Amino acid sequence: MPLDQASPPRIALVVLGMHRSGTSALAGVLGHMGCDLPQDLMPGNEANPRGHFESLKVYYLNDAILASAGSAWDDWAPVSPDLYRSPRLAEFRLRAAEVLAQEFGDSSLIVLKDPRICRLLPFWTEALAEAGFRPLYVCTHRAADEVAASLTRREGWPASRGRLLWLRHVLEAEAGTRGQPRVFVSYEALLSDWRATVARIAGGLGLQFPRTPEAAAPAILDFLADDLRHFRSDGQRAGPELPDWIRRPQEILGRWAASGERPEDRAELDAIEAELDRALPMLRMIAGDAAPAQGAPVPSGPSAEEGARRAADRAAQAMLEEELALLRRAQADAEARLRHASAHLEAMTRRLSGEMEATLSAELSARARLPEVEAARAALQREVADLRESLRHKGYHVAELERHAGQLAERVVVLERQQGELERQLSEATLQIAELEARHAAIMASTSWKVTRPMRSAIQMFHRPKQTS
Asked: Which residues form a coiled coil (predicted)?
């Protein structure tokens, strides 16, 4: 690549979907395929034991942005457009840049996931671009009834509230990503054939994952256990009983996830969102929320009021019936859990009783051996003391031997010097003897010695003592 060529943009795979629609499972699979997940991950809980695979910092920031606009994660009303004209927007952009840097560093392929992003797409699209990311959107679909049932179990809501929240999220996620690189998948397809879902994402977004499906398969198969899915919609119930507001988007998004988008469906989705916004005052009234809608017209006139009252009565009756059915299911579930807990408690009691008996027996045996152990310990302590005393004496003896060895070494040095001196003197004496012997031999062999021999003999006789007769 030439040095002056711009480096390729960093890629952000933005997972979009309603709460409880499989966004965590999808983000986890993308992480196993080699995409970088946030550093500060939201921990798992009872509702999502395998983890959420989303950033705690992004979660807190999104909650703060929604709160500043008078909204929250469970609000099915549209976010006020005044948010994007607020002076606080610059503050939130700065915080988003800091969060992206802290969570992903220099990574070039990340997964960004939080269902709240569906409601804040204009903000995050700009924040990602400012951070040098090119967002690629992965929209995951799950049946509205399954999402509502999961939220009912977790939050205790009536199913109608979960369906409305599902509708708001999926409509805003679809509208907010039009014209952007995106692909639609489904939670059901992810669980039944994750390889096909990964291939669909890669092909639809023109993306090459760092890991091959073969390399990631063991981890993904272990991750996508069947117990991830607790609720399945009834195919016989998914038709006429659902209002068109829910049924039609569910059919459209399900078809898109299976076979791709159809541009002619977008007008119908827009019309449903417009109807939802127009009905917002009535829906708030039914839900007991008196807060006015942002920019939504309020129906007026006798016929409109009568129709609103009838619709409200029908909706209230439906909500009461749903709540009654919910309470009955909750009661049956509580009774079943109570029976299970009682049986578990009884089994645990028997197991603990056995363990306590075994522990008590072991403790009594240990106490009976305690005097023996104490006596052995005392004997060992005495032996250690004796060894230490012996070692101390041996240390003194070693020191004395070392001192005496030093003295002997000094004496050896002195004797070696004396030996050297004596050897020198011996050598000199040997030389002198040799010289004298040579001189003696020369004298004995000289002529004068031989001539004077008679004279020496006469002198010896003269000096010899006379013998007395």
From this structure: 370-439
pLDDT value, residue 239: 40
**Per-residue pLDDT reduced to its tens digit, 404-453:** 878 888 888 888 888 888 888 888 888 988 888 888 888 888 888 788 88
> And the tokens for 37?
């997940």
- Judge whether 197 and 185 are in contact, CB under 8 Å: yes
Which residue, among 107, 96, 105, 140, has the nearest Cα to 36 in the 3D structure? 107
Q: Which of 372, 133, 144, 376 lies closest to 252 in space, CA to CA?
A: 144
Phi, psi for residue 406 in degrees, rounded to 5: -65, -45
Q: Report pLDDT for 316.
A: 46
Crossing angle of helices 280-287 and 302-368, in 10° steps, is: 50
Task: Report d(CA 101, CA 347) in Å as an integer.
Answer: 51
3-state class of 206 per DSSP? coil
DSSP conformation class of 248: H
Q: Token match 């029976």: residue?
A: 339
Are 144 and 253 within 8 A, CB to CB? Answer: no
Residue 112 near residue 15 (C-beta atoms within 8 A): yes
CA angle, 249 as apex, 244 and 252 as ends, to 5°?
120
C-beta separation of 390 from 398 below 8 A:
no
Average pLDDT over residues 348-359: 78
How many residues in the chain?
469
Closest CA to 186 of 123, 144, 125: 144
pTM of the entire structure?
A: 0.60
Q: For position 250, what pLDDT does the model report?
A: 95
**What would the DSSP string read from start to end of 321-368?**
HHHHHHHHHHHHHHHHHHHHHHHHHHHHHHHHHHHHHHHHHHHHHHHH
Report which residue type is found at 15: V
pLDDT at res. 5: 46
Is the pLDDT at 220 greater than 90? The verdict is: yes
Interatomic CA distance for residues 79 and 93, integer angstroms = 17
Task: Please state the rounded mean pLDDT for residues 80-91.
Answer: 92
In this model, does residue 460 exceed pLDDT 60?
Answer: yes
